[in-house]
Every structure is written in C-alpha cells, then in structure tokens.
Design goal:
Blueprint (H helix, E strand, L loop, with lengths): L6 H7 L15 E4 L10 H12 L4 E4 L1 H7 L8 E4 L3 H7 L3 E4 L5 E6 L2 E7 L1 E2 L3 H8 L8 H9 L8 E2 L2 H6 L9 E3 L4 E4 L3 H7 L1 E2 L5 H7 L2 H13 L2 E2 L1 H10 L8 H12 L4 H10 L3 H4 L1 H7 L8 H19 L6 H17 L13 H16 L3 H12 L14 H6 L3 H15 L3 H16 L2 H8 L21
Parallel strand pairs: 3-6, 11-12
Antiparallel strand pairs: 1-10, 2-3, 2-9, 4-5, 5-6, 7-8, 9-10
Helix pairs in contact: 9-11, 10-12, 10-13, 16-21, 17-18, 17-19, 17-21, 18-19, 21-22
This protein binds adenosine-5'-triphosphate and magnesium ion (MG).
Adenosine-5'-triphosphate binds next to helix 10.
Amino acid sequence: MTHRSSPSSHESSAPGPEPRALPTGQGPRVLSADSIPRDALDADALRVVARLEREGFEAYLVGGCVRDLLVGRTPKDFDVATSAHPRQIKRLFRNARVIGRRFKLVHVVYGQHIVETATFRSDPLSTEAESELGGSAAEEPEEHTREALDDLLITEDNEFGTAEQDARRRDFTVNGLFLDPMRNVILDYVGGIDDLERNVLRTIGDPRKRMAEDPVRILRAIKFATRLGFRIDERTWEAMIDNAPRLARSAPPRVLEEILRLMRSGTALGSFRMLRACGALSVVLPAVDQFLGDPDDAAAQPRAETFWRLLEALDSDVHQGFLPTTAVCIALLYLRIIEREADPATREGPGVPPDLLTVTGEVLEPIAFQTRLPRKDTARAQRIVFQQRRFTQVATKRFRPLLFLRSEDFPEALELFRLRVSARGQGWDLYEGWRDRYRRLLSAPPSEVEAEFGPDAGPAPRRRRRRGRRPPPA
Ligand code: ATP
Ligand code: MG
C-alpha cells in the first residue's frame, strides 16, 4: 500500500465525475458534491452537522476531510465548523466536552470516536496585516516589508467569524473547502476546487504574508504536496524560500511534530529534498543540513547519498505498513553524523573520539534541547544507536545475546538495524537471523527457549504495544 497518490492517480481515483458548478449569486462558488459517495462520510460527523442545522446554525464538514474525499482518499478524521458558539454547541450535545484554553473547541464524543467541532474563526491579523503591509505589499521588494512581516507571527487566534472568514484563515486553498452534507454541495470561498483539479498547492491569499505569519506552513506545504503528488505554486514556493529563516522563531514542538510527520509520510526522501531546496532544512535541522554538505561540493556527495538511502529505506518500510517511533526517527536522522563523529578519520568535533555512547550524547543532547524533544525519546534514540554494534558482535561472557534480545529497546534497535541494512543493500542474512531469534523468543515455550538460548532464559519478554505500530514487515 502506498500513501502517495500521484497527480495522474488523483485524476483516475477521484470518485465519479468532477463537481459541477451550480448557478450562484454573490458569495462562495457552490458546486455539487455528487462525486462524493454518501457512505464515505462519517456518520457521527453527519449527526453533529444535522443537529446544528436543525437548531438553525450553519454547519459544514471542513478542511482535510473535504480535500481527501475529493481526491478519493480516505480522510483521517472529519472536522466540523459551525456558526454556533462553544457554549451553544455544549448545550445541544450531552456528549460534548469543551476543550482548549485560548481558543475553545468542542469535542462531541461517540464512544471512542470524537468529532472535533469548532466555531467559525476569523484571522485576527487579516485586516491589520493588509493595512500594515499596504495595499501593494505583494509587489514591494522584501526589504520594505520585513519588519511588518516579522510582526505578523501569529500570537492571538481567537476571534469568532463567519464561514467565509473561517475559510480564508486556513492555510492552503485545497484545505479551505466546506462540504454542506445537508444540501450535498461544496462551498468554495478560496479557489480550492480549481487547485484540486490542477493538482496545485497554493496558500490562501498572499503567500508571503501567510508564510510569514506562520512559517510552520512551509513544512505543511511540503507535507501536502508530497502526500498528494501536487505541484507547489510558484509564488507559494518563493514565499517558502523567503520565509524559511523565520522557522527559527516557530515553536520547536510544532516544528518537530511536522518533521516527524514528514518522516512517517512514506515520502520522506522527497520531503527532505524539498526541505533542503527551499532552505528550511538548514534552519530546522542544521546539523543534518551541514552533514549533507554543499550541493556543489562533489566530495560531500557520497556521504550525503548514505543519508538519502536511509530515508529511501524508511519510505519503503512505511509503504509496507510500518510506522517508525519517535526514537527510531531521531536515531535515523542523526545516525550518520554520530558515525562520522565516532570515526577518528572523519571527526569534526575536538579531540579524539570518545566512546560511542559519549559521541551519541554529544550529537543528540544539544539537538534534544533545541527541539524540546522528550527526554525518554532522546535517551532511547541514544541507546538504539549505541546498540547497533551488538548485531555484529559474537557472544562472549560480557555480551549475552539473550539479554540483548530481552531488553526493552530491542524491537526499535532491530528496526534501526533493518533500515541500515536496507539502505546499504547488504546484511539481510544477519538481520533475518536476529528477527527470527526474536520471534522464537516471543512465541516459543520456555523449555524451547532454554534449549536454544541456555538455562538463564528467565520469563519471556513482554510484548510492548505502541500507538500506531504494526509488526515489522516479514
Ligand atoms: P491531515 O490529513 O494531515 O490531518 P488536515 O488538512 O486535516 O490534514 P490538520 O493539521 O488536521 O490538517 O488541520 C485541519 C485543518 O485546519 C487544515 O485542513 C487547515 O484548513 C487548518 N489548519 C491547520 N493548520 C493550519 C495552519 N497552520 N494555518 C492555517 N490553517 C491551518
Ligand atoms: Mg486533520
């Protein structure tokens, strides 16, 4: 299974005919939603919309779900936007919980399933921004507007608005479509349908302004473009290049989350190449960018290639249904840097390389601090990089394979080893040997474990369950 739909597969996988424009007066472009099969809509989200409408409020399915339905993908979740205020929503649904401190959202809960229901918001910056930048801001040279753009970083995002304002405050045209399931129409305030038909990713409004007010949109643009197989509109791309340095001012946890999403997308290789091309990689992962060297430096290319092969291996695993944990992602990003620093011939740090565990700490700790990486993920990443040498080590008194197999880190260490083997294209026999031993350890009765691994086998390791993880591909 692949997570990527190419531009051509988008056309062929769109269910039924293209949406047909219906006559309208002023306001949004209104299109028939006949191309979306009714049973593709989430029943609970439909219930929420129907109830709100019955009570006289406006309510729509919004954002990613509408985009995905129109390109024939299965939406991850169905979000609702409405004219009802949080307290009014709460009053209508016994199963509603108001969440959020600054901007209140309502979760309407059906068993395990939550329908996120938000009141239409306006972008508090839209009017201010226009006047600060002046009417002709789009044509001004960058120097004239830098200060104004710096001031645009979103700080407040909590004003209620109309459906149109709510559409316009969203990031990309293809994410700004509203589906009215009661009338079976799509409301397009932002030109999203045209862009979906042409496979183009474009910001809503002036790209320079939209990227400046929230530079994390640069990472989101790469995520959506690679996921959907869309081309990034030229002015949007230029704005990504211009605003990449501003990512340094974005909240580190948001940046980290988007990087992890790119790594789990199945298109990590393409995403990272794009990150580098627009200048964002040197801001969000400077050590990785430096490791890759200057694109014109022929001497750096072989080592850069070893990094790209790791991402390729990761994509291939993701396509087989495997979701890397945060520790595996972090380890993979910095593995080659750690290896280089641990080698006296290539070390860039001061002095002779200390032991591998110390080098791993030297590389990962400052990064963990900058990106506010959770301690436990950094520590685990550190350990699984260190443990890589175990896979080629022979059993001795000091190294007992059984203890290694039983360690809590083993499954992730083995995942990282598989990615390394896959990137190098050699060592599969070693990997399969360890994988098979681990499987036997999990499934064999204690007597057999004892026969194979010796008398000190002890209890079988606990199977750990992690969110979103599936067994590694055979
Ligand atoms: P996914 O399938 O990855 O969840 P999505 O489009 O649903 O994609 P979310 O991050 O879940 O993306 O956000 C939901 C919607 O909220 C988006 O479709 C977009 O309309 C809006 N949105 C999210 N983040 C931003 C942002 N940084 N700026 C403006 N609008 C945003
Ligand atoms: Mg979403």
